Amino acid sequence: MGGVTGQGSVVTFVMGTRWDLAPNPLPATCFTHICATCKATTYTEKAFSKKTTVICNVCSSYTNQQEDTDTNTVVVWDLPPDLLSNLLKQANERGVAPENFVIGFLEWRTGRELPFIRLYNREEKQIYIVQKR
Fold it and tell me: Which of 2, 6, 9, 8 is nearest to 77 (CA)?
């Protein structure tokens, strides 16, 4: 996920799950990080290099709210292909509109209502506005 701020600069970070909101027991494969913002223990299901900024889902929610108050901030979600594929598969299996399922997942992760999202398509190198149906 990345937020575009200021004069076209891009801030990119990975959203993990804060320790107190993580499933118990933890998934068999998870990696531990320290949230760059609040310093809470944060888990991801993928390994990331030490150079990657990881923030917890609670801080991600606050970061996303900047878009509401700062006209220079635009939030763009860049979901890893395997995650997006899994979400689309689950939406199909449950008979839910893919847009609603993906946005619902991000709402659950951030604890914030999202009437629409900007989703980056890696293959096309395009940003699409995705709205709930």
Answer: 2
